[in-house]
Amino acid sequence: MTDIRIAPSILSADFTQLGEQLRAVERGGAGLIHVDVMDGHFVPNISIGPMIVKAAKKASRLPLDCHLMITDPDRYIAEFAAAGASMISVHVEAATHLNRTLTAIRALGCRPGVVLNPATPLIMIEEALRLVDYVLIMSVNPGFGGQSFIESSLDKIDRLRDMIGRSGFNVHIEVDGGIGPDNVASLVSRGAEWIVAGTAVFGSDDPEKATRALRQKAMEPLTV
Ligand code: DX5
Ligand code: ZN
Q1: Which of 3, 105, 109, 171 is deepest in the core (most CB within 10 A)?
Q2: What is the pLDDT of residue 108?
Q3: Is ligand 1 within 6 A of the CB of residue 117?
Q4: 34 ligand 1 Cβ < 6 A
């Protein structure tokens, strides 16, 4: 059963009105709230920490999808779980002991996910499929919102879908970076289910309407 969810990334939100922005995307039909955590080491930018996750948790009933772009995820996963994360994903490039990290995320009561940068081959996560609820394919180089979608990600999603099918595990595909109304349908038609969008939602004048429009486009391949 396909589980399409739009995951607005609060990286592009107006933090002076975070509560209202979260309520707007919820009204628009968002299924997750994507939280981009950047440490200035793994990626060149610094963004959100557990304090904001705690604030978002108070303001929204939607699951908080924490994407850790940090060098030492083991050190912080408990803090993000305690702050209210429902899902925690770590980069395969950053987790030295990926099996341990993913097991620990589940033991903390969160859904574990693993993330791949655009140039990281899928084979790197083959052994981890048994441990995760989702794989997040980066369709931009992580660090900033508002970048252009890397087209080769489409082929990578195809190959990931096949790899998951062969594995027999129930793993969702999430995609992150450069996604908007023009390319969301092609991602869904390839098997992507959880769609992250920062600029396309919070860069618009009306995040509620933008979320609804994106969701409609995402559902199109399933209704034709
Ligand atoms: C990039 C982040 C993304 C980002 C997406 O490092 O992981 O989640 O917020 O932003 P857009 O949708 O603007 O590409
Ligand atoms: Zn992200």
Answers
A1: 105
A2: 98
A3: no
A4: yes
> Residue length, the chain?
224
Domains in the chain: ranges and CATH = 5-223 (3.20.20.70)
Residue 11 C-alpha to ligand 1 middle, in angstroms?
7
Residues 6+ apart with CB under 8 A from 83: 50, 51, 53, 54, 57
Write down the residue that tokens 């980069």 correspond to: 91
Q: Return the best residue to mutate from 38, 136, 147, 179 for the ligand 1 pocket (most ligand atoms within 8 A of CB).
A: 147
What pLDDT score was predicted for residue 154? 98
Q: Where are the alpha helices (DSSP H) in 34-172?
A: 50-59, 77-83, 98-107, 153-167
Mean pLDDT, residues 7-13 taken together: 98
Say if residue 221's pLDDT is above 90. Answer: no
C-alpha distances in Å from residue 94, one per residue of 42, 73, 80, 86, 182: 7, 7, 17, 21, 31
Query: pLDDT band at 81, cuts 50/70/90?
Result: very high
Q: What is the DSSP string of 4-32?
A: -EEEEBGGGS-GGGHHHHHHHHHHTT---
Q: Can you give the pTM of this predicted structure? A: 0.98
